[in-house]
């Protein structure tokens, strides 16, 4: 392999001091604008780089005795500095880059991803940072870049582990990194059409067609468009249209199948070689798109499975290039597969799913989970129930494919969007340029057919492909629609608005309704709160979100039925019944009361968790500690030891005089609510009252964080660490879990509203953590949820559960009920790698464990990072890949067994008449199951039984049989 030299010019000290300040998004955006106007773009000059490490002037080539060397540009000083300060690399010249630095494994391959993203930006923004500098002669030598690319991949592909774990990323990068393979002509076509539609709006309709359903006839449509609009087109636009037509002709040019294998050396797998040759020599495929897609999809999967059996990295590179060409064949011919029968449509979906797996959008094990459902098209007829299950699985294939792109590129896109908004289109472009696009179209067609057969239709404004919208939990809402296409982390939400998110924030405050593209998982705290409080919640596609943007700011009605069909319509179209749903009611009718009659504040000692049980919930402590103490008695080998700081200790500390005040903390708190009632009685608006309360609670919260701790409490806590947890305080990492009397009430879950501190070690941090947990019920988010649903939100008492950390391999949530199926005897689970899995809305691995013993994968994990718990305290971010499932078969068997035992023993041991489902937090360490929490699974019965929701829920005859010969198109 050639030796590549990476040289960065050292700046003068005063320059470095100034340039190092360009770190915020505003500064980077200003730099981008400057580079766009510079005739050299991100470069400052051109030099010869010789093999001995010397650098020579552009007219002074490297001498023969040294070697030929390479000629290319050097980066500007501010571009170099940005790479150092922010790990953002602009205008990367490959021949100027060390391959290891470019692969950038320590930073989750950020430099490679940035290179790909920049190629996209260049396409959609006339060269982007090279707008003026794209013709800076000699800056980049294409032949050197291609030679570098070949050497880069030949070296990278020697590593089995990289190819196995990063198959999708490596394969995608081949579309952008030059290596003598085909250029990314599909992206070029989409970029050029986007630029034209931005500059000439009447072209938008054709641009959408080219992006969504590209086919050869588009060429004639563009030609006719040019003729029709010729009198309005400038010389520049005419030139751009000619370039687009040239690109489209190249894209739609028939591929010579015989050329597929001409560059491939001898394969070690003779069976794969036979398949390749048979495909390349099958002359009948060229005029038979259906058979072509069948064979190409099958071969794509065989290539994916067989590439690791080849040991020659050059052969691996050639096979990956063949794989890209096969995907191109499937992509171009998908629309030509005419689906004039249900059987044909189902078969097409199956093969497009197979192609997605072959192209890396699905992992092999994920495809194996789907294949059994999607290959069920040979029967003479299928029931509506069977078709609905097939649709669910096919829709999953589309969602998992899209989430694979997001999981790989979201981090870099999110960084770039901060200073270059156009970067937000990159992920959509990647999805639209893949077989996943056509899989989504075919699944949408199946969804429309099934909706027609079952009368289960959505009414979501005027969006296309409405079958991609599905309800997650029932409810109805009325309010302003807010559509948020990017990050939601900094969004301030309002309780009377309906939000459409790409991904909801994990600390979501109360809202009227939610719809999300990335739903996270169905048992996250956000989802459980929405389910508990009858907040209508739906999932939709990114395309649906984009189409809803034009309704942003309008007042709408939003409803999700008990069966998951969705209504979203303008206020003007609401029926009288729907209007009457929002007739103002007394607040008391909508809210519940926290019981405080049995609370015991006389217990002021730190308790061994073994000494409490379920009877103590809401009396001595909250349900986390009480229930875990109960679990410790029932399952001593599956539950850690623990300490409980009861309500009484908190209350005793609140009787101290508050810093800067003349009254105690407790009196200050109660005065806030007394004054709020007085303000309401004087007809002040609720918003003004709430703002007053939030300001006062912020004062209280900050004061509690510095509250003096009583000596006897600190000594008791230290003694508890030594006697119960087995080590002195400061030597064992622990979790501090807020555990209030407002959680797990009959009609209010309170899940995730208050603070949990992960893996705290040092004594000072533990004591500070106690104060922080006591203060957490007075945060804006916690208060707003309580204020909205509780009659006496001031009567919140936090206890604290202190348990030693378990550095689990993976963790998650078990619901002893089928949330999706509605079957009380099914189980729903969601797991992520590391600690704190699934509860914060991660893209977790989710299963429906059916009563009949079948384990149905609902979603694979798509979270690239996870938290580990080092013994030194805190959390450590680690990265992961998706080629194997999170849970193994033994884990699933253990979860089933544990769920059965919980359902049988908990009611008996607690002498409870509760017959509902349980919400259990658990984890695995070295395949051993650990229990961390159990609580009742609270659902909003009002929403589930609402007359209105029942009226919009169609009665579906799932036993209805449909012949597979039926045409799916009306």
TrEMBL record:
Pathway(s) this gene product operates in, as recorded in its UniProt entry: Carbohydrate biosynthesis; gluconeogenesis
Query: Secretion signal: which residues?
Result: 1-20
This protein's record includes keyword Kinase: yes
Name used for this protein in its record? Phosphoenolpyruvate synthase
Q: Which organism is it from?
A: Maribacter flavus
Q: Entry's InterPro entries?
A: ATP_grasp_subdomain_1, PEP_synth, PPDK_AMP/ATP-bd
Task: Report the function annotation for this chain.
Answer: Catalyzes the phosphorylation of pyruvate to phosphoenolpyruvate.
Q: Which reaction does it catalyse?
A: pyruvate + ATP + H2O = phosphoenolpyruvate + AMP + phosphate + 2 H(+)
Alphabetic keyword roster: ATP-binding, Kinase, Magnesium, Metal-binding, Nucleotide-binding, Signal, Transferase
Q: Which residues form the Pyruvate phosphate dikinase AMP/ATP-binding domain?
A: 620-943
